[in-house]
Design a protein that fits this description.
single chain; mainly alpha; 0% strand
Length: 449
């Protein structure tokens, strides 16, 4: 007995086999997803090579650290000039640009000024320069804009009948970019749902997942299937750490809120002296901020340069070779690096600052190294959730990065507590930065740099 509502398998199969153009569209999208993964791999290798070269220059001799006081400001000034002249849409992390570009009412030429393949290439090169300069910057946030640009570039080759539009492609590319960069597929999906798309239909969700899988496979084939920060030696939060864990959540939430407020107010237009100086002399202003970053690097022996991967991993492994003031110095260096106006992400530096908060609280309570490790993980998720006000994305990213599945409840609770406290201080950072761009989106003189 066959109901009229029951799908006819063979008829549907024949229809699918005859849909030649639809299969070509799917092949184009899949190829773009693989290309996105390759792009993330390329950006990763470029940034790692640039960071390694900076370390070599810094350690080239007794004068190496002191030479960074000249090298970092000069190179940053050049990067600011190149960014403003040739790629104004590439400044900053790139996430606010993608959020603005996802507006369906945005004119095509303005969207191309914010998200495109040529801009993605320029952003990757400028990001490598920021790493070479020794700025406190991450590559994971910029891969959102790069991935969106790669995926959007294939829209011209899709047929008019394709159910996939530019919005879907950008969301899929952005999610695939951050998932491949951190090797966190679930985090990529949640980031797309929580911070980017407002559609949430089945076709888009399937596209996001397929693109994440394919781009992730490319990244895994090069770097291996390894967690970003390795595996925690302590996989749970014992009862005696509930008090210190709550302190970590509160401190991380307040610090993340202050960081967001500081960054938004720094980039927002106004009549304060620093805004007038930045508007009139952006290259000099960028060099001055970079000089501050270089001085911080000199004080802490270069620990604040780059994304902060090495110090964060050292803290998670129970090593105590990070400077005593690392948390505060990394916080300030990340803010100044973002203020320069060059491509610079804050995802990875936020994780590093959060790790420092967890370590500092553990030292304050006199805890043993094995008890400090879960607090460090809580600090990472707390500060990231507070800075981005994306608690679901934050706890899933950190859980996948440290393979801390046994800590899922404590990570989730910390993310929501910290994010809630941050909302008392500042509105969501990326939304605020996107609003600052929106009135003049796509123009060379965009107010957000």
């Amino acid at each position: 007995m066959h109901s009229d509502d029951t799908p006819d398998f063979w008829r549907n199969l024949r229809r699918e086999m005859k849909a030649g153009r639809a299969w070509l569209d799917r092949a184009i999208v899949l190829a773009a997803a693989v290309t996105t993964g390759a792009a993330v791999v390329g950006v990763t290798l470029l940034c790692e090579a640039a960071s390694h070269l900076h370390e070599q220059m810094r350690g080239s001799g007794p004068l190496g650290p002191w030479l960074m006081l000249l090298w970092t400001p000069v190179l940053t000034a050049l990067l600011v000039w190149l960014t403003r002249r040739h790629a104004p849409g590439a400044a900053g992390s790139g996430i606010p640009q993608v959020m603005v570009a996802l507006d369906d009412s945005l004119a095509p030429e303005r969207r191309r000024a914010l998200v495109s393949l040529p801009l993605a290439i320029k952003k990757a090169a400028l990001l490598g320069g920021a790493m070479l300069a020794g700025l406190s910057a991450g590559r994971e946030g910029p891969t959102v804009q790069i991935g969106a640009g790669v995926m959007l570039s294939v829209r011209r080759w899709l047929s008019p009948a394709a159910r996939i539009d530019g919005h879907d492609l950008m969301v899929a590319g952005a999610a695939a970019g951050i998932a491949a960069a951190f090797n966190t597929p679930l985090g990529g999906v949640m980031f797309a749902l929580e911070k980017l798309s407002r559609r949430h239909h089945a076709a888009q969700s399937a596209l996001v997942i397929v693109c994440i899988v394919l781009s992730g496979l490319v990244a895994v084939s090069v770097f291996g299937n390894l967690t970003y920060f390795g595996e925690l030696r302590v996989q749970s939060v014992p009862l005696e750490l509930i008090g210190p864990g709550l302190v970590v959540a509160v401190v991380a939430g307040l610090a993340g809120g202050v960081f967001s407020l500081l960054l938004v107010n720094s980039l927002a237009p106004g009549d304060r002296w620093y805004w007038r100086w930045r508007a009139q002399y952006p290259v000099r202003f960028g060099a001055a901020c970079a000089l501050g970053v270089a001085v911080i690097g000199l004080v802490c022996d270069g620990a604040t340069a780059g994304a902060g991967y090495a110090p964060t991993r050292a803290m998670l492994e129970g090593q105590a070779d990070t400077p005593a003031l690392y948390t505060l110095l990394k916080f300030i260096a990340t803010w100044l690096s973002s203020w320069t106006g060059v491509p610079a992400g804050v995802f990875a530096p936020s994780l590093s600052v959060g790790a420092g908060i967890g370590r500092d609280v553990a030292q304050l309570f006199g805890l043993a190294p094995e008890h400090a490790i879960p607090l460090i993980a809580l600090g990472m998720v707390g500060f990231l959730a507070a800075a981005t006000q994306g608690p679901l994305t934050a706890f899933i990213l950190v859980m996948e990065m440290v393979s801390g599945h046994a800590m899922v409840l404590s990570l989730m609770l910390t993310a929501f507590v910290s994010s809630g406290l941050s909302r008392l201080i500042c509105k969501p950072m990326y939304m605020e930065l996107a609003e600052l761009m929106r009135p003049r989106a796509g123009e060379p003189g965009s107010r957000v740099a």
